[in-house]
Each structure stands twice: as C-alpha cells, then as structure tokens.
diguanylate cyclase
Amino acid sequence: MTALKSTFLKLNRLILFLALSATVLTFINSFYSNYEVQKEQLILQTIEVNRAYASKLSDTTEVFIKSSQQQLSYTANSLYNSMNDDSRLQEEANRLKFQTDSFNSVVISDAFGLTHAASPETLDLVGRTLSSAGSVEALEEKKALISSPYLSTLKNLIVFLSAPIFDMNGSYLGFLGGSIYLKSPNILSKILGEHYYKNGSYIYVIDQDKQVLYHPEKSRIGSFVAENNGIDEIVANKEGGMLLTNSKGIDMLAGYSTIPSTGWVVITQSPLESTLVPLTGIMEKVILRTLPLALAVFLFIWLFARAISKPLQQLADKARSLDSPTVNEEIEKIHSWYVESLGLKRAMLSGVKLIQSQIGDLKRDAETDPLTGANNRRAFQFRLKQLTLLEVPFSILALDIDYFKRINDSYGHSMGDEVLKQQTKILNRYCREGDMVARTGGEEFVLLLKETSIEDAFLVAERLRIAISEETFDVVGNITVSIGVSHWSISKVISAEKTLSLADKALYQAKEQGRNRCIIANGPI
Ligand SMILES: Nc1nc2c(ncn2[C@@H]2O[C@H](COP(=O)(O)OP(=O)(O)OP(=O)(O)O)[C@@H](O)[C@H]2O)c(=O)[nH]1
C-alpha cells in the first residue's frame, strides 16, 4: 500500500515536471527564436541603412568630383592664350581656390612643370618646378587625372586633380591642378564629416589599394587597412553590406558603395553591440506578452495531465480492494473518459467478475459435499461456531440410515448413493431460513435447527423419521432412520461440540433400542 502510494506521488510529480518542462522549453524556444529573428532583422536593417547611406554619400562625392573636374577643365580651356600672363594665371588660381572651396590649393604649371601660379600664394611654389607624383603624372599623361594619394612637394598627403592646358593647335602647354589635403579640413571631410553620427557609427573612405582617404580618426588617414576580414570583399564589390570585424577587433555592420569616377569606397559602419541594444527592450516586451500565455499553457497541461491520471489513480485504488463486495459498482462509477482508461476499467471489471465467481466456486466446493450437495462437516462446524458466538440457541438432529450397509450390499453402492441423494432432498424440505443440512459422515447427516427448542426439535425429528419411512426410494423401496436430538443455548454450560456428541450419543441409543426412532439426548440439554 505504501509502495503504491509513493509510486502515485511520483507519478503526480512526474506530471507536474512534464507540464513545467514542456512549458519552459516551449517558452525558451519561442523566446530564443524570437530573439534570433529580431536580431537578424536588426542586423539586416542596419546593414541596409548603412549601405543606403554609403550609396548616398558616394553619389554626393561623385557629384563633387565631377563638378571639380569640370571646373578645372573649363578653366584650363580658357587659359590657352594666357600661359605667358602670370598675373592672369594667379587670378584664375585664386578664383578656383577661394570661389569654389573644392581644393586646399591650386597650381598652374607649364609643360615643363614650372609653376606659374599657386593659390594660396603663401605656398611659395611659384617659380619652382613640381616633382610630386601628381605633377609628374599630369605632365606625362597630358589628360584629366585624379591621382592616388601621395606626399606632395610640401609634404602634405594629397589627392591631386588636374586638367591639361592645350593651345588652339592642340599643343600641350601645361596643366591646372587642384589638391585636396587629406589630413587638413577639406571638401571630403566637409561632405562626409557632416554625416558622422553617434552610437559608435562612423564613415571612412578607402581607395582600391585599401589606403584610407578619409576617417574620423585623423591618424588613420594615409594608413592602409589591414586585419579587417571584410575589406577585400568590399574593395572587390561595387556596393553591398556585411558583418565584419574591424582592425580593433570590434564586430561591425558595414554598408559600402564605390564612387564610380575614382574607385574610392565609402564605408559606413555601426558596432554590432550598439545595434543590438534595442533588442533588450524588445525581448522584455516579448517576455511580458508571452508569459501570461505560457502560464495559461502550463496550467492547462497540468490540469489536463491530472485529468488523464485521475481514472488511473482511482482504478489503482480499487485494485487494492478487490475483495470488497461493492468493488464492481465502485469501478463502474469511475469516469474513464479516454479509450485506454476505459479499456483498463473494462479489463478490471471482467477480472473482478472472474475472480469473484472463482472465489464463489471455491467457497462452494470447500463447504459442500459433492455427492449430495449438502453442506459438509467443515461448513456445519463453522455454522455451529457462528451461532454460539452470536449466542443464538439451536437444536441438532443427528440422523443415520438404518442398515445402510445392506442397501449397498443388496443393490450396489451406486444405488446407495441415490438413496443418500434422495434423502438429502427430504431433509432440505425441513430446513427453514437459517437452518442447515450437512452430511457429516458416510450415511450420517445432521440437521441444525436455529432458535428451536428441544421439544420442537424432537417433533421435527419425529415428522422427519415418519416422512422418510413413508418415502419410496427408487429400486430400494422403504428405509428407516434413527435420530438423536440435542439442544444448545447460552444458558447451558456445554460447548457446541459437546452438543453434537450428545446428539450422536442419543442416535447410538436409538440404534441400540431397535432403530427407526428418535431419542432426546440425556444430560444438560
Ligand atoms: N453407497 C454409499 N455407501 C456408503 C457411503 N459412505 C459409507 N457407506 C456405507 O455405509 C455403510 C455404513 O454401514 P454401517 O456403519 O455398518 O451401518 P449400517 O449398515 O447402516 O447399520 P446401522 O447404522 O447400524 O444401522 C457402509 O457399508 C459404508 O460402506 C457412500 O458415500 N455411498
């Protein structure tokens, strides 16, 4: 019983554990999926925003470069007949420098690289032959150029835009050049610096050699980008976005776009960490919205699981009291609402019926004489004990067929059996409710008469003796019986066993006195 109870408790806990773990797992799973989806959305969104930003800035820079080149070309075309007029050249250089704000400095050199005009004039380049990379390239190529970054004659890191000057016959006269000083405030920093925004995001520009042309950290300008796992892909593609780790080892969400005329790449990037900051708030909202549903689901699973276990528990309880006479009805009452428990209930009911009928058969077999169907000695003694314990008075008729041996001898043993059976039927006719007929020996029977006085018992014995003597038995004909009568009540000091032996004694006397008679036992009856 204890073992079953503890098993049931374990089952109950198991159900609770199952309900709880199913809910928690579902909750975690949904939270995790939600987190991952939101994170991916935020990342993709940020990369796209950065890409669009980089594209916009690259367009703006492209427009600026194109217009700067046009200004240089236009002015260069107007200088074909002024190459000997240094003051005119100086005027044009100043105009370009100060009107347009496109360049940090402007120079006009002849076909030999000798500088005729330079603005601002403080540069002190007039009269000097330029030998910087941009000047040399302009003299050699004799066409409109945008140089790679290089160190100028005055040791500035510059990008040099130039336009050739030709005379009417197409002879090369020199070039007009504008420099952008990468490390000083310049038009690039004006365009890009305006868009520098907070939360760790920043913009920078590199050329195809991965040299930094613009960066919010001035010290980085002119350096080459290394240890940046995405930079090769960025340089190779024209436009796009990606997650990369920058040179400081920080994960960045980058959008990039290439400026068509220069091949420079504008990169806008935001730290992954700051991008994901809003995720905490989002996930808090997700938890708050999901939690009530998760609790409801938990409650539902728990109650449902309890409802599943209830009929099992009740059936198990009944299985422990199968000997109860009302167990069948109790099992019938159990609400087995699903197929498996119904099957179990039906199996238990048929099992109980089978056990009960087998118990009934065994009980009958244990208490019945198989030949006559009368009770046997064991049942009779049990009944005696019952009545004495309950203090119910009774009388005993001990009955024996006279000369039964002769019947057997004359008609055979089986005919003797038939006589015993027929006689049992007669005895049963004298039984009332609570009385008992029992076969206590070969041809010895007893009749127990409940709440019957010795006088009444004697009258019954006489009537019985006469009835048997008047009965015609098959083949055998008439027989007689001798009967000894005794009585027990609580007022007597004798036991039930003694009462039986007194009846036997009286029977013996009846035999001795010639048989076919009834005798009341002597003694304290
Ligand atoms: N047919 C049959 N005979 C039985 C059975 N049990 C006992 N007997 C016989 O009953 C007979 C009893 O004989 P006895 O005890 O000598 O007594 P009796 O012949 O009846 O003579 P009295 O009792 O003295 O009148 C025996 O022959 C037993 O074999 C039984 O179950 N069936």
Residues 2-77 form the longest helix (76 residues). The pocket of guanosine-5'-triphosphate is lined by residues 371, 400-405, 408, 413, 416-417, 420, 442-443, 511, 515 (CB under 6 Å). The first strand starts at residue 105 and ends at 110. The radius of gyration is 62 Å.
